[in-house]
Design brief:
Elements (H helix, E strand, L loop, with lengths): L10 H6 L1 H5 L10 H16 L7 E2 L3 E2 L1 E2 L2 H8 L3 H13 L3 E6 L2 E7 L11
Antiparallel strand pairs: 1-2, 3-5, 4-5
Helix pairs in contact: 3-5, 4-5
Length: about 120
């Protein structure tokens, strides 16, 4: 099963068990609360964009294309904090960032691993 979100997926079933994936999961024990909140914000933005075919990469999944200033405004954090949180989420295997040159990075929001499974 892919860890990338696909446009046709039913996110409501996934969302019901989302908090359980973070609580007591050793894989995410070191994540800050701020990072978890930011991840949930990114996840919500991803779900809102799922009907937009332009924001889909075949073989990967849905992505966000927001600049650091945009993410800063959305999250209410400064740009430096957004950068630190994104690094934390990349390290935890919850997002992948792809640099796009002069354009905003693509952020692929991944499904969390269940029960401390190793990352792909």
């Amino acid at each position: 099963m892919s860890r990338f979100f696909q446009p046709e997926e039913d996110q409501s079933a996934f969302a019901e068990g989302l908090f359980q994936l973070f609580i007591g999961n050793p894989t995410y024990a070191s994540l800050s609360r701020r990072a978890i909140r930011f991840y949930l914000t990114l996840l919500q933005l991803t779900w809102e964009k799922r009907d937009n075919d332009e924001d889909f990469t075949p073989g990967l999944g849905l992505y966000l294309a927001h600049s650091r200033p945009e993410l800063s405004e959305i999250s209410g954090s400064n740009i430096r904090m957004v950068t630190l949180i994104c690094r934390e989420l990349v390290k935890a295997g919850l997002i992948i960032e792809k640099k796009m040159g002069q354009q905003a990075n693509r952020i692929y929001v991944l499904k969390p691993k269940k029960g401390g499974q190793p990352h792909d």
